[in-house]
Amino acid sequence: MWKKSTRLILGFGCGYLFILLFPIDSPFEFSEFLLKFVVDPFAFFSASIVFIIGFITNALIIKEGVEETFLFYNRKESNLVEILLALLLLVSFYILFQTGFWQTMVFFSFSILYGIISLDFSRFKMIEE
User: Where are the transmembrane segments (predicted)?
Assistant: First the structure.
C-alpha cells in the first residue's frame, strides 16, 4: 500500500514538474519553442527525465488498476485499494489539466498507452477459466 501511494504521489509530482519545466505559450510558435531548449538545455533535459519517470509510474498504476478492475468485474479476489488508487490517479490528472492542458494531454496519453501495452493478457485468460 505504501509503495503504491508513493507511486501516485511521485507520478503527480513528476507531472507537475514537467508542466513547470516544459512551458507552452498560448500563441504557439515553434521557433520560440525550440529556442527555449537551445538556450536552456538543462530545463529540457530535466523535463525529459521527469516526464519519463512520471509517465512510467502512472502507467504502472493504470495497469494495476485495469487488472484489479477486471478481477472485480469477474467476481474474483480483487484489491479495492488498487482500484481506488486508479481513481485517485484520475483526480491527479484533472488537477494537472487545470495547470497545463497540453502538457497533461501528452503526459496522460503516454501513460495510458504504456499502461495498456504492459497489460498481461495471459493473466486474464487464466482468470476466465
Answer: 7-24, 44-66, 78-96, 102-121
Burial class of 2 by CB neighbour count within 10 A (0 to 12, 13 to 18, 19+): exposed
Domain of 120, in residue numbers? 2-21+28-128
pLDDT tens figures, 96-105: 999 999 899 9
Cell numbers found for residue 16: 507537475
pLDDT digits (tens, 9 = 90+) for 54-95: 999 999 999 988 888 888 887 777 777 778 888 899 999 999
What is the count of structural domains for the chain? 1
Burial environment of residue 35 by CB neighbours within 10 A (0 to 12, 13 to 18, 19 or more): exposed
Q: In the prediction, which pLDDT does 129 show?
A: 52
Query: With contact defined as beta carbons under 8 Å apart, do 63 and 115 qualify?
Result: yes
